[in-house]
Each structure stands twice: as C-alpha cells, then as structure tokens.
Amino acid sequence: MLDISATTRKAAVKLLSAMFSQVTEEELAPLFEIVVRYLACAMSHLDAGVREDSLLIIDVLLEQCPILTANYRSLLPHFLDMISSQTRSHEQARQLTVDLDSRTTTTVFRIKVLTRLRSMLLAIVHLFKTKSSSSNVSREIVVTSSTRHVPLYCSQQPGKSFIYDKKITSNETLDDVQNYTQMLMPLLMETFIEVVADRKQAGSDIVVEAVALLQCVVDIILNVLHILQQSGTVGVSWFKQTYARSIREHLYKGRFPYTVGSWGSTPNKNAKQRRKDSEAALKLLDSSLDLHCTGQNLSLCLLAFQLNIDTPVTLDYVLTSIKCSRSLKPTILACLDALVSKRDLRQCITVTETLLSLAKDPDLKFVVFPYLYNIVIRVDVNKLAKKTRIEDWLDTLPTYLCQKQAIPRSVVDSIMTLAARKIPALQNSIDSHIEVILDCLPELEISDCQGNTDEVLSVKKSLARLIYWVQDWDEELSEEICVALRKQHFGPLTPDVQDLWFLRNEVYEKSLA
C-alpha cells in the first residue's frame, strides 16, 4: 500500500479485500496492528496518490473487520492530518491545507476523507452499542402447564465468542475525546463555509459538493455526540456549551432548510470541472440526490433537537416531512426521540396532533404508527390526553387486529408492549374486542414475515397473550374460548391459548374465593 506505483497499490487493495473476506476478525486480530501501522504511514505519506489510495484501505477494513478497526482509535488524528496542519501558535489549533498534487480537487478530497472519518466514528458508535447489548441480554422463557421447572439454562443460543477489545490509552478518556473534538469542530465548520461562501449571495441553495459535505459534517457531529454520551452528561453538556452557538451560526442561520442550486460550484471553474466534481460528490452520498435535501435537512433537525438549538423552523420542517412521507423514515423517528427527550410538552402536543390527523388516513395509519407509539411510551399519556385525542387513537389499536388487512409485525409487538402498560383507554378497548381478535387470530396476515411460517406462528402466539391482559374476564368469555378450543379453532395455536385460558380461569377463581 506504500508503493509509488498506482497499479501496485490498487492490486494490494484487492488482495487485502479478498484475504480479509475469507477469515474472521478473531483470526486477524494478532496481525491487525501491523496493517494499521502501514495504513497510518500511507495516510501521512508524502505522495498524494498514496494518501488518496489509503482511503480505499480504510473502506476494506471498515467493511471486512469493523470491530477491530473501531478499536484502533489512534487512527483518528491521521484523518485530520490529511486535510489540515497544526499551527505554530497553538498545539490544538489547525488550518486547512491545499494539496496541489492531488488527482482530485481539494473540496472533493476533503469530502472523501470526511466520509471515511464518518464511517470510522460510526463503527466506534456501533462498538459501544455492541458492548452495551452484550452485557444486557434478555431471553424469552416459555412455561406451559407441563413445565416442572423454570428453564433458565435450557436451549441457550451461543452468542458471539469474540469481541476484540484492544486496550488503548489514547482517545479513551473524556479529556482525550474533548481534545480531539476541539481540533475537529473548527475544521468541519471551516470546510463547509469555504464551499458555501463561494456563492454570490446568501441563501439556502447549495451545490452538490456542499450537499455531500453537509451530510458528512452533520453525521460526524452526531457520532461525536454519541461517543461523548458514553461518559455521561458531562461530555454532552460541554459540547453544547462550546459549539452550539457556532453550529447555529454556520449551519442554520439564513441557510436552513437547504436545497440544491441550479448552477455549479464556484464561478471561476469551468463547466467540465464542475460536472466532474459533482459526479465525484454524488458517488459519496449515501443515497440518490434529492433536490430538496430532505435527508440532510432532517439530520440538521435531529442535531438541533439534541443540542437544544433554538430554531422553530426545524420543528415545522419535521411536521411537513411527516405529512409528505409515505414510508417510515428513521431520521424522523430519531428526531421525535430527541424531541421527547427535551420534555417540552408543548412541542410534543403539537407533533401528536399532527400525527393523529394523519393516522385517520387508512393508507398512512401504519406509517404514522411508529411515531405515535414512540411518543406514547415516553410521555405521560394522561398529560397528552388533556390536550390531544390520543386516547381515541389508543382505542382504535385493537381494531387493527380484527381486520383482513395485513399488519406489520412491528405493530403487533408495539401493541403488546402498550397492553402490558395497562393504559386505561387501550385496556378497555382490548376488553371490548378480545372475542373478535381471537376469532380473527388464525387467519391474521403478518405483512413483513416474508412467508416464514415459524415467524408468523411466533407473532400469533405473542398476540394470543392478550388473553392475559383482559381485565373484564368472566364466565361467558371463558366459555366462548373453551368452545373455540374444542373446535380446534386456533389450529397450531391451541396449546398456547389453552395454557393462557387455564391461567386466567385459575386467577379468576381465586379472585372469587
């Protein structure tokens, strides 16, 4: 990867990709540090071609062995060295550099570097999540009437035996993360402003290169925030206090929401170079180009909510995006998460009212469902009910289980979670519809199980447990279920329904005693 010949370097990239795809990360671990050291040399090499091709090696490492790569956080400063240099005045102060020997323009090269930095930070975020989830794993234990013991140690599925955790002293503590952030943030702001400042007038229209750069900048900041959260509220509070105002001035004020302009990059560039830069930037975008920059604007909304940046335009933009969306957008869901975390009841009410109006549209009810569910489980329903018609929506949820229309598995799981919370409006509706739900259960269609009969059966077994949450249990309901069991109405679900029926009758008889 350090060879002067571009052909040799390209062959080395292909060879590494082929080799790493055939072995596990556990097998790579003993030799991986050698690869990382060569990569660090390539990233800081005097030859511009070697530096540029080192980005291809990073792609291979992040794709084939993300856990190993994420543990080598010593690579992070090298990304900054590729686009900047230290100033003599201050150790942490940096200034952007211009590489005249590069095969691409400075802007495109910076986008390439920042794209890999974003991927590296995302791998670190995923590593944190992996460690967190592996230390807090729950299993579902099924107990039937014939069970004579609690099967805590039976049929355990083996987990991943390998999570490589290299002990590193650099960039591990909060101080190290803050020091890196202090070098990174000014460069991000300066890089973006340098691209948009070439415009003749201020406004929200930006060029394709700026769209790709904006996406990188916002994603990097969001990943840095997530890493800082691992140290508690101290790191995030420091970031908000230090950079919230600067981010507002550079990314939001007079610019948000962004759109793609109709003319090229900079006035002094010829059309051929502009087209070449635009094509290179398009390849680095995660998705196809949207002239309205919806993805980038929603990411900015998420950042504004997380940093408590005071700009009402972001909330309006999220509401408009929800109205225009015909499919679930994870970024909107993340925006609502951040919005609810602010505990601003007024904004929650505004969002809830908009979602409730959209939920009345039969074509949108399953699109809007995750957004409303996310609010209900995190906000006091009693407070929402005083200002919105959220209880009417909760009352309609059991009817989703009584219709011939296929229902997503995620909706079934969410309804079961809400049922366990014993929310009065939902509880009363379950009591009213339980007979119809059980009657429709064998024929219920689950839309996202891809024809997997075992998965469909598992969802229906879960749904049958609504019997357990029925409050208005009486002899008439018990007799109706008993008749259905005799007729084998529930098919393969019969043993599960029968166990639940026995359990509810036992509880009911004890309550009468």
Physical arrangement of strands within the biggest beta sheet: 1-2
Largest sheet: 2 strands, antiparallel
Rounded to the nearest angstrom, the distance between the terminal CA atoms is: 80 Å
Strand content: under 5%
Question: Which term fits the overall shape?
Answer: elongated
Quickly list its features.
single chain; 513 residues; mainly alpha; two-stranded parallel ribbon; 22 helices; 4 strands
Describe this entry's structure for a reader.
With 513 residues, this protein is an all-alpha fold. Helix content is 64%, strand content 2%. The protein has 22 helices and four strands. A two-stranded antiparallel ribbon has the order 1-2. A two-stranded parallel sheet has the order 3-4. A hairpin with a 7-residue loop joins strand 1 and strand 2 (94-96). The longest helix has 29 residues, at 106-134. The N and C termini lie far apart (80 Å). InterPro entries: ARM-type_fold (IPR016024), Ipi1_N (IPR024679). This is Testis-expressed protein 10 isoform X1. Residues 26-121 form the Pre-rRNA-processing protein Ipi1 N-terminal domain.
